[in-house]
Every structure is written in structure tokens, then in C-alpha cells.
Amino acid sequence: MTTECLVSRQQVLLSVACCLLPLFGCRREIRELNPPISSASRPLPVRVSTLQPGPTMGAPAALNNPYEGNAYAISKGQQLFEQYNCSGCHAHGGGGIGPPLMDDKWIYGSSPAQIYLTITEGRPNGMPSFGGHIPAEQVWQLVSYVRSLSGLEPAATVSPRSDEMQARRAEEKK
Amino acid sequence: MNGFQSAMHPAGVQASELHHLWNIFLCVSIVVYGITLAAVLIAVRRSHRRTEPLADAPSERRATIAVAIGAGMTFVTVLALLVASVATGRTVGTLGRLGTAHLEIDVTGHQWWWEVTYPNSEPDKSIRTANEIHIPVGKPVELRLATRDVIHSLWIPNLHGKRDLIPGRVNKFWIEADRPGVYRGQCAEFCGLQHANMALTVIAESQDAYDRWLEHQRTAAPEPVTDAQRRGRQAFLSLPCVNCHAITGIDAYATAGPDLTHIASRSTLAAGTLINNKGSLSGWVVNPQALKPGSNMPANEMTPQQLNDLVAYLESLQ
């Protein structure tokens, strides 16, 4: 009598791969409960434009967003956007007193470092400086959320629910 | 503490009704359990004596009668408990229908603390506090429950059962305390990481004491007296504190976190997580994430001097 193999080789490989999956690719879900204490101090200058007269002054300082592509940071930023009244001027991304954030036009640059500076240093004609008033980790969370408004963050990390009032149910709106 | 948070020590009309109902259910359950256990033991004993199963007419009839009696008793018991349950529900619910003078308090759930507002038709007389509800003894109180984020549930076992706080709607809830005391309430619907540390204190006191408390809460924050307190106020306004917390009387109006106008008058910090004293206040201000991981208050960078001044100022906010 021949022994019949109930589980094929592919199935074994697939289940092993599934078991190993949690070891990789969950950066989206990382949530640091006790981040290092730091206030949003003035980082090295980040240029808004790469154009400059005379000799090159060196590359802009590398300021990396520790929460790039992190779903928790984006949803946290969404909450802070409301609590710190960013929506008071920028509405829910559509703009009003302040410029819209959901289009692809960036007056002072769209890189995480540039947005970080826009929040901490303020910008001419109305954007206040929040440096020293918001801890650095929260500024980065706001940066992640602001970038997600115009699709600069991976779609899989953006919250499917929005918190503001709307005509349709929250579940139906992205 | 005896009966600090216990449905077995009712301190209000509804809680004592619920306690009666609980006693009835307990007694009935004990009797039913006893009868069932006795029946099982008798059956086990008999099955040993008998070898052949009986299938004649008289034993068939006896079995039918036994089943009928059992079914009848079950029906009567369930009916009795149903009647008791409905009667309790009606009594518990009547408080709101009495139409007597009552007090209205708004309770808003946040992850993970309770915002408590005493509205007044004159807006400057309404007050906003956190994690502490003061009520006068012997007066019906209508709690209007709302939430800013997820579903929470308010449970003050000494005064009443649970009532959920649902996003987008206001749930009403009546309580009345019969005797003065301090009762602990707790969120009873899992609401995230710090659900367990989302407690509040209910202080039932005489009308006079309540009026004094209310009058005091309506006053603005006291002016700093010492130099340290003055520097502390400046630190509060220049550090991230001012972005989320309000203090009446100075330029701090934010509503994301608890109102701190009279923080030193409250017995706990961080929704019942810590006793309100200098040590825990200092620890909390610098790094809340170490004491209540996941809390929405971030860790704050400040100099030791700033911390001492800030704590001196907050401690003066009686």
C-alpha cells in the first residue's frame, strides 16, 4: 500500500511562510509606548529650494521622519490636527484661511523635514511657530498625517475613517 | 476600603433596588442548584440498584409526571424572576420621571479620563472639571453621557448599574445618593490600552458642602504668591502644557486635556491612576508614558528648575 501524502509540499512551504510573516513587514503597526523625551527644538536648516547662488552650501541636513509609513502615527496625527486646531485654518485639508493640504502644491516643500520646519518655525503670512510648544514626536506624527492628506504616505497606512462631520457615514468615506 | 467600589454596599435608590434583585436571584439560584444537585445524586444512587431498564406503563407514567413537575417549576421560577426584574427596572427608571428639582451634569468620556461639566444658564457660572463628580445627597442627578472618541461605559457600583457612552449621541442616566461618602466609578467598556486606569471619584456630600465646592470651582485660578509659583505659571504658558490644558484666569483655553484650574483640589491624577501629591505630579508632568503607557499626554522636556516651579504652581491651584 502506497502512503498517500495528505499535505502537499507547496502547502507546507506556504504555512511555514505564513508563520514567518509576522517577523517582517509590520512596520506599519509599530507603536512605541515610551518614546525618548524631546521637545521640538530647532533642527539644522532645511532648504525649501535646491536653487542657490554661488557655491553650493552643502546638502540639506538629513531629517528623517521616524514615523514614515506608520499607521498609528498617522491616526495620532489626525487626532492632533483637530486638537491643536490646525483645522481652524487648513480645514480638513481643503484649506480656508491657510492653504489647502490635500493638493499637490507645496509652498514650502513637501519633504518630511520641510513640513517639520513649517510647523516648528512657522511661515510668513500667518503660519504660527509651534516649536517648543509641541513635543518632537507629535510634530512628526502631524507631519505624517499632513503628508497622507495628499497621498504622500503609503495608502495602506492611511486611516479609512475620518473624524470630522460628513454627509456620508464615516466608514464610507476615505 | 469597605464598599469604596462595591455593588454590595448600595448608597443610592437604584443601587439598593439592584442589590435586592441580586439577592433574589442569588437565593433562587441557590435553591435551584440544590434541587438539581439532589435530583442528580438520587438518580445516580438509583441507577446502581437497578440492572434492567424499566419500560412498563407505571414507571413510564411516573417519569412523565416528574418531567412535568420539573418543567412547571422551571416556568414558575423564570416567570417570578422576570416579574422581579421588570419591577426593579420600573423602580430604577422612575427617578427621572418624578419631575422634581434635579441637578444636571455632563460627563464626557475621553481616552482615558472623564470630563465633567456642570452647565449653568449663565455661561460664566458653568464649571469644567475632570475625574471627579460632586453631588448633593438626596437630590436626583441627571448625568448626560457623551464621548469624544470611542465607546466608554460609566459604572459607579455604589450608585447604579452601567450606562454606555456612545459616539454621536447623548445617553441619560439618573443617580441619587442616600448617604454621604466617596464612591469609585470605573469605565466598564474596553476602550483601549489604559481602559483599566480610567476611573473617577464620586463625592456625595451635604447640600451645604456641595454649594461651597461649586462656588469655589467657579472662581478663577488663584494668583501665584511665591516667586517659584510665578515662574511656574510662566513655564506652564511656555511649555507644551498650554496646548492641551485650560486654566481659568490666564491665557490657557485648550480643551484636549483636563481643566487644571483647581487641580490641587482633586484627590487623584490621571483618572484615578495616581494619588495627587507632589511626587506623582512631578513624575506625571515629566513622563506620563512611564506611569500610564499609551496615555495621550506626551513626555515633556524641561529643566529641573522649570519642573520644580511648574509643580509649585500646579500645587497652588487649590
Outline the structure in words.
- The complex is a heterodimer of chains A (174) and B (318).
- In chain A, 30% of the residues lie in helices and 0% in strands.
- By secondary structure, chain A is an all-alpha fold.
- Chain A has a domain at 65-174: Cytochrome Bc1 Complex, Chain D, domain 2, CATH 1.10.760.
- In chain A, helix 2 packs across helix 5 (136-149) and helix 4 crosses helix 5.
- Chain A is globular, with a radius of gyration of 21 Å.
- The mean pLDDT of chain A is 79.
- Chain B folds into two domains: 1-211, Cupredoxins -  blue copper proteins (Immunoglobulin-like, Sandwich); 227-315, Sandwich (Immunoglobulin-like).
- A five-stranded mixed β-sheet of chain B has the order 3-2-1-5-8. A five-stranded mixed β-sheet of chain B has the order 4-10-9-6-7, covered by helices on one side.
- Chain B is elongated.
- The longest helix of chain B has 38 residues, at 57-94.
- The mean pLDDT of chain B is 90.
- Chain A binds chain B through residues 33-39, 79, 83-84, 132-135, 137-138, and chain B through 193, 238-240, 242-244, 254, 256, 286-287, 289-290, 293-294, 296, 298-301.
